[in-house]
Write a structure and sequence with these properties.
By secondary structure, the chain is mostly helical. Helices cover 67% and strands 5% of the residues. The relative contact order is 0.21.
Length: 188
């Protein structure tokens, strides 16, 4: 199946929005803390059933899919026309947004994974030998912040895709100009 730039941009945006939605819902569903149940020399933390861990992992998965689709969309040969990577990276604005998209994807992954893994560890390692434990949960606000950065990442991939499309059109205009004017033709 041949992809178009419009289809790729819709795919990147859709996956980024799903990552954002799952991250925000995970933040809203995360419990404030668990209930300590004292035992003999231990405290067992009972946490309410919540989908925040699953939603956090889903948010990370859709962030990764959005980033992979965004990266793939930049270098895909649309309509069978290949553009060398060096042509794209000659554009300073493309290079800047490409690096920002990578950075925000990594930051979003860190902000989403840190509380998700921490929450997962709190749920699975719920027996504490410290009798004064208050059954903590993951830090509040990180999942929501990661969700917003995930959405930002998808938007930066889309901006980079628009800049890559402009660089691609300029490259093909230049190639066409070289082919139609004798002074631009390469002599062999």
């Amino acid at each position: 199946m041949a992809w178009t730039i419009k289809q790729m941009s819709l795919l990147v945006a859709f996956l980024g929005i799903l990552s954002f939605i799952f991250g925000v819902i995970a933040e809203n569903k995360k419990p404030a803390n668990g209930t300590p149940i004292p035992g003999k020399d231990v405290v067992i933390c009972k946490y309410p059933s919540d989908p925040s861990v699953v939603l956090g992992y889903l948010s990370v998965a859709f962030l990764i899919l959005s980033s992979v689709a965004g990266f793939f969309s930049l270098f895909y040969s649309y309509k069978g026309k290949y553009v060398p990577h060096s042509v794209l990276f000659q554009s300073k604005s493309f290079l800047v947004f490409f690096n920002i998209a990578f950075f925000t994807a990594g930051l979003a992954a860190a902000l989403l994974l840190w509380p998700t893994v921490t929450e997962h560890l709190h749920l699975t390692r719920n027996v504490h030998h410290n009798l004064a434990t208050d059954c903590p949960t993951a830090k509040t606000g990180l999942l929501g912040g990661g969700a917003f950065v995930s959405l930002d990442s998808a938007l930066f991939w889309l901006v980079a895709l628009m800049l890559a499309d402009n660089a691609r059109e300029d490259h093909f205009d230049e190639v066409e100009k070289q082919g139609s004017h004798p002074e631009y033709q390469v002599k062999v």
